[in-house]
């Protein structure tokens, strides 16, 4: 068929090609929607483990497949399995509390007796707890959501990570070729990704772990039941700036005070305010030069945004989205400034 028989102009063909690409990409994303966390998790692990890969492969000349296998094994044993165990423990215990609200109501009744007026009814408490469990279950990926789905997500994540390392040159070349950004913009986006992953994965995970250990130990010393469980809750809550662990040890102190254990309640408050809260600031100062420096407002807003969209991975991806938005605004501002300089000035 001759080219003149085509009813579309060259520009129309170009526009339709772009629309077809966008449509196909949308269908692919919809089809992979439930597994998108696997690819996002692979990207996060790629950034976290890449310094080791670079040191062993590019500097020492080790075999890429051998190093990749070792890194995948390390990621599965040291990162994925413990994180999965924490989420399983969190989901199972929260569901147990949801099924039996008698413990919660007993505490509330004691607080009501101290306060002198009714706070809520058992029906309202049960409804609130069940809503919280439903919300958490949708955003915390675990074996509770299905063994097959969990296995596919983990396998797809490790499979993707394997090819990202073994075919690293082609992967990076493809990013530079197909992403619609200038080289300096790609460099800024890369730095933003690195800073966010370092700040919200490496740095924040370390800070959260220390705060969780201190919180769990404090609650155990002062006789709070299920101290291990609340220590696990503290680990996840510590990712939220400002609020964080006070949402765990604060109510524990109030409960102890309402039960008449004044010394234990005051002790929890003193340790929480003086030690646990300040350890966050101290560790951030010590790690500030080694981890990305992300503004707390970006982290807080990003966590709220990210958890709603991506689930538990939103703790990292949410701040990253906001950081990318800010970077692109700066790029847009810079490009407009350059364009104005190139335009001829109009006579007054």
TrEMBL record:
The keyword Lipoprotein does not apply. The chain crosses the membrane at residues 16-49, 70-91, 143-165, 201-222, 228-249, 261-279, 299-332. The keyword Membrane applies. Keywords: Membrane, Transmembrane, Transmembrane helix. Its main location: membrane. GO terms for cellular component: membrane. It is a multi-pass membrane protein. It is found in: Membrane. Belongs to the autoinducer-2 exporter (AI-2E) (TC 2.A.86) family. PANTHER family: TRANSMEMBRANE PROTEIN, TRANSMEMBRANE PROTEIN 245. This is AI-2E family transporter. It comes from Hymenobacter lutimineralis.
């Amino acid at each position: 068929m001759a080219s003149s028989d085509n009813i579309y102009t060259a520009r129309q063909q170009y526009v339709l090609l772009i629309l077809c690409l966008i449509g196909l990409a949308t269908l692919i994303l919809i089809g992979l929607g439930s597994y998108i966390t696997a690819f996002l998790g692979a990207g996060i692990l790629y950034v976290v483990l890449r310094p080791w890969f670079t040191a062993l492969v590019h500097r020492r000349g080790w075999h890429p497949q051998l190093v990749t296998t070792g890194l995948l094994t390390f990621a599965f044993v040291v990162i994925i399995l413990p994180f999965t165990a924490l989420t399983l423990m969190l989901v199972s215990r929260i569901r147990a509390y949801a099924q039996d609200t008698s413990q919660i109501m007993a505490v509330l009744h004691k607080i009501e007796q101290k306060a002198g007026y009714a706070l809520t009814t058992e029906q309202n408490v049960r409804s609130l707890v069940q809503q919280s469990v439903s919300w958490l279950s949708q955003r915390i990926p675990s074996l509770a959501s299905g063994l097959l789905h969990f296995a596919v997500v983990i396998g797809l994540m490790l499979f993707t990570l394997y090819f990202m390392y073994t075919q690293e040159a082609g992967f990076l070349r493809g990013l530079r070729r197909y992403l619609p950004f200038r080289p300096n913009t790609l460099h800024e986006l890369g730095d933003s990704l690195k800073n966010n992953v370092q700040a919200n994965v490496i740095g924040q995970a370390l800070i959260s772990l220390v705060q969780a250990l201190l919180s769990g130990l404090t609650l155990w010393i002062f006789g709070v039941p299920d101290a291990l469980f609340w220590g696990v809750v503290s680990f996840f809550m510590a990712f939220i700036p400002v609020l964080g662990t006070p949402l765990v040890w604060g109510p524990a102190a109030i409960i102890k005070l309402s039960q008449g254990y004044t010394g234990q309640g005051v002790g929890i408050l003193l340790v929480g305010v003086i030690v646990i809260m300040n350890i966050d600031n101290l560790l951030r100062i010590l790690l500030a030069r080694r981890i990305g420096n992300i503004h707390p407002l970006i982290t807080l807003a990003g966590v709220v945004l990210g958890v709603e969209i991506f689930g538990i991975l939103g703790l990292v991806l949410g701040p990253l989205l906001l950081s990318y938005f800010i970077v692109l605004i700066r790029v847009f501002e810079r490009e407009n400034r350059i364009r104005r300089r190139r335009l001829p000035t109009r006579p007054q």
